[in-house]
Amino acid sequence: MSASSVAAGTTAELSAAQVSAPALASFRIVHETPADSSAREALLDRVMGEGRKRKSSEKLRRKRVPAYGLALVARDDHGAMIGSVRLWHISAGKKAGGEAVPALLLGPLAVEDAYAGRGVGSALMRQAIRNAQALGHKAILLVGDPEYYDRFGFIDRNMSGLAMPGPVERHRFLALELEENYLDGASGVLTATGKLTSEQSAIAV
């Protein structure tokens, strides 16, 4: 997928992510739109609970705009949202020379309980990673279950010098390097670098 195809951001282009699974109608992965805001927040509340807003990751997302081309939703055949994932611009600390390390923070990833285990989350993850690669990003970080995210290549290599802006279980602090050894020598606390919502009225897709 080229960067230009991501920029176009049409439902048709992402329909290649369409998946069929037992006891589940096919679904498709599409770019999120501003009209999805209420449905997305309701989905996150149902799946993750209100405590999601107190997580360390939220400090890097609050009042920020998701990274361009990296806010995705899954829809069933009726157009209802059944899953969501977003990625955010961050600085993954600094290198020894003082230069910042641009990266992405993934999350939250959420899928309606009724569709758990049906491939929706995996499809969202794989599309998000493909889009990030096409747009030239070098690394994706997240906080999540290693048993789940290992299948997508997320591990704790090169994470010892990095920290979240709040408490986090270290074994859940993971990264996928889209460029080999990109995080070598990176250290410091992750900081948000994405546009503030006040700077952009519409979501970046």
Key terms:
eight-stranded mixed beta sheet, two-stranded parallel sheet, 205 residues, disordered N terminus, single chain, alpha+beta, Aminopeptidase
| CATH superfamily (homologous) name | Gcn5-related N-acetyltransferase (GNAT)
Sequence stretches where pLDDT stays below 50 over 5 or more residues:
1-13, 201-205
Mean pLDDT: 87
Q: What is the CATH class designation?
A: Alpha Beta
Number of strands: 10
Helix-residue proportion? 10-25%
Q: End-to-end distance, in Å?
A: 15 Å
Strand coverage percent: 25-35%
- Class based on secondary structure composition and strand pairing: alpha+beta
One letter per element, helices H and strands E, the order comes to: HHEEHHEEEHEHEEEE
How many helices? The count is: 6
User: What about the largest sheet?
Assistant: 8 strands, mixed
Named CATH architecture: 3-Layer(aba) Sandwich
Q: How large, in whole angstroms, is the Cα Rg?
A: 16 Å
Global morphology? globular
- And the CATH topology? Aminopeptidase
